Amino acid sequence: MSLNCSGLGKTDAVGGLRNLLRKEKPSFVFLCETKLSSVEMNKIINKLSNYNGRSVDSVGRSGGLAFLWDKDINCVFRSETVHYMDFEIDWKDYKWRITGFYGWPANQDRHLSWQQLKILGRQSQIPWLCIGDYNEILYSSEMKGGMRAQWQMNNFRNAVNEIGLC
User: Fold this and answer.
1) Where are the beta strands (DSSP E) in the chain?
2) What are phi and psi of 139, to 5 degrees?
3) Angle at 45 between CA 18 and CA 105, to 5 degrees
4) Which residues lie below 8 Å from residue 10, measured CB to CB, with a gap of 6+?
5) Cross-strand partners of 85
6) Those residues with Cβ within 8 angstroms of residue 115's Cβ, 6 or more apart along the chain or in another chain
7) What is the pLDDT of residue 143?
8) What is the pLDDT of residues 42-95, one digit of tens each?
9) Which of 14, 26, 31, 47 has the fewest C-beta atoms under 10 angstroms from its C-beta?
10) Burial, 133: exposed, middle or buried (Cβ in 10 Å; 0-12, 13-18, 19+)?
11) Do the Cβ atoms of 146 and 100 come closer than 8 Å?
12) Closest-CA residue to 65 (of 39, 36, 86, 94)
């Protein structure tokens, strides 16, 4: 499961997350835009009894990432920045990789997202799942209202194709 939280600072938001996790029981959860420090986010993670987790500080009150996983799963941390969290999973005799990705929100910085995605894509040959909020779309049909420049979507599609994501 991947969620753009738009902030977890309110008690009702944390309660909503807890209820969603109880209902859906996802094995993995990537949260972006928590808008919390690691200290604040780790307090929330500690209250989620079925999950282990790791978090990345917000920058002021923007950004912030968290990755949660079921306590029965062997999840090994690889690397992180304010834009991604990367893990290797050893589960049921199968090794694979999962990355929670949060793309640069500003249009002029999106090329940095695709650059980072390409770097991550080249780091391992094991099966890879990359989830999150890329802050971009592949096709204009994915957007309701407004318009997206064709070159922006092309740049995202080129990065996705180059590293073999589908």
Assistant:
1) 2-4, 28-32, 51-59, 62-70, 74-80, 84-91, 94-102, 128-133
2) -140, 145
3) 85
4) none
5) 80, 100
6) none
7) 87
8) 999 998 889 999 999 999 778 999 999 999 999 999 999 999 999 999 988 899
9) 47
10) middle
11) no
12) 36
Tokens representing 144? 């309701």
CB contact set of 67 (below 8 Å; sequence gap of 6+): 28, 29, 30, 31, 53, 54, 55, 85, 87, 100
Q: What span, in angstroms and rounded, lies between the C-alpha atoms of 28 and 88? A: 12
Collapsing DSSP to helix, strand or coil, 99 comes out as: strand
Is the Cβ–Cβ distance between 137 and 156 less than 8 Å? yes
The Cα-based distances of 51 to 36, 39, 97 in angstroms read 18, 17, 18
Q: 92 in helix, strand or coil?
A: coil
Two structure tokens written together for 160: 């996705």
